[in-house]
Amino acid sequence: MPQPHKYSRRILLAVIGMPPQILTETLYKLVVDSSPAFVPTEIHLITTTQGAKSAQNALLCR
């Protein structure tokens, strides 16, 4: 069985609230503190409408 970091499609599914800090902390752990690094190719968020707006403003600079 291949290791997860070798998959061509790696999806991070996260549930976030208003501040998207949990997403950035999770990404940091997966990419920097994991050996080998696990870099998602896609990120899917489950949140509220207000949480989605907050994430867009904080993470995508919209």
What does this structure look like?
This is CRISPR-associated protein, NE0113 family. The protein has one domain (4-59). 35% of the residues lie in helices and 16% in strands. A two-stranded parallel sheet has the order 1-2. It is α+β, with helices and mostly antiparallel strands. β1 (11-15), α1 and β2 (42-46) form a beta-alpha-beta unit. It contains two helices and two strands. The termini are far apart. It has helices spanning 21-31, 49-59, and strands at 11-15, 42-46.
Short note summarizing the structure:
This protein is of the alpha+beta class and 62 residues long. Helix content is 35%, strand content 16%. The protein has one domain.
Which helices and strands, and how do they pair?
Blueprint: E1 11-15, H1 21-31, E2 42-46, H2 49-59
Parallel strand pairs: 1-2
Largest sheet: 2 strands, parallel
Share in β-strands: 15-25%
Radius of gyration: 13 Å
Structural class: alpha+beta
Helical fraction equals: 25-40%
Quaternary state of this entry equals single chain
* Poorly predicted ranges: none
Structure annotation, total helices: 2
The overall strand count is 2
Q: Distance between termini?
A: 40 Å
